[in-house]
Design brief:
The strands form 2 sheets. Strands 1, 2, 3, 4, 5, 6 and 7 form a 7-stranded antiparallel sheet that branches. Strands 9-10-8-11-12 form a 5-stranded mixed sheet, sandwiched between helices. The longest helix has 28 residues. It is an alpha+beta fold and 389 residues long. It is 48% helix and 20% strand. A hairpin with a 2-residue loop joins strand 9 and strand 10. It folds into 2 domains: 181 residues, GAF domain (Beta-Lactamase, 2-Layer Sandwich); 165 residues, 2-Layer Sandwich (Alpha-Beta Plaits).
Amino acid sequence: MELDSTAYKRLIDVGRALSAEKDINSLLARILKEAKSMVSAEAGALYLRTHQNTLKFSIVLNDTLERTDIDLPEIPLTTGGGEPNLQNIASRAANTGETVNVSDFSTVKESGARQFDAIMGYMSRSFLTVPLKNHHEESIGVLQLLNARDQKGEYIAFSPDSEALVEALASQASVALENRYLVDEQAELKHQFEREVDERTRELKGALEKLSEAHIILKELTTIDSVTGIRNRQYFEEVYDQEYRRALRQQYAVTVMLVDIDHFKRVNDTYGHLVGDDCLAHVAQDIDNAFNRPADVVARYGGEEFVAILPYIRHNDALRMADQLRMNIADKDIPTEKEPIRVSISIGVATMIPPDISSMRKLVADADANLYRAKEEGRNRVVGSESTP
């Protein structure tokens, strides 16, 4: 079902607001508040998937109850026999990945909501339960709304329009949650980054003592690619050598990504080299913005290829970040002097904890081989590998 322009504009505004939330609790509260408001629901709850394969009750908003000390048991996503748990509305939505819209709760045999009603002294009438899914279409939680009301305050069922609106909001909420999880996970490594910054600060101070201001400026200019405005291949080679040796000493993981614009020759042939240069510059900035931690390095590798060095990143996180970059670029109109164009990218990802100095080139070679595989398998995709000691 298509959304009208008013609903679509509101979703855009809500998406921006969700992206601005700085911690997980305020983000969860904002998601639930916006969902309730959009469809005039009396109550709502959010459940998040745990590492134990359960749904954990996280937050509830209810216009008719004063209690906030709600502690409901976790909902298992599988039965004792290992089968998907489809007996609970929330677990059914999470397992099937499909929305569950119950217009009359009295006709449903469902223990979870009845337990909630008994504990809270509440009466559930209608349910709209929407799964929150990541970019791999895996359920990471459930958004549940209760008791829709019309403009007169009368209880009604959730309409198909409401269902479509909440599903669209759930998609935005899932992206915001994934991004929040990633940021929080990286924050746990803050002490490692601080040591890295301290070490690099000492190195920089030592270099400044030996170089004149003019020499520093000249060296900086020679490391910038004139077309894209990001670092060039020379800078990558220098920094990669330093980063690999540091990772070898301290035994932390380092990731190399090689990014290639698919069918870039067609852009030059169709629109000309000036438009091709515009395209290169916009894609370069998108990559640079995606990997912007102090330790990250992004450079133009050559032609339509770019390279990124990402220390302290787990392989699965690197794949997730690469796929998010791929989707962002594929969905973006690139402004040029002639007309907006769209391109896709292929990415090869390689991660390792360096075993010895002789494997320095192997990491780049693995990323290059994975990029080749991504193109062979159809382009517009991410292929990665991880070398373990």
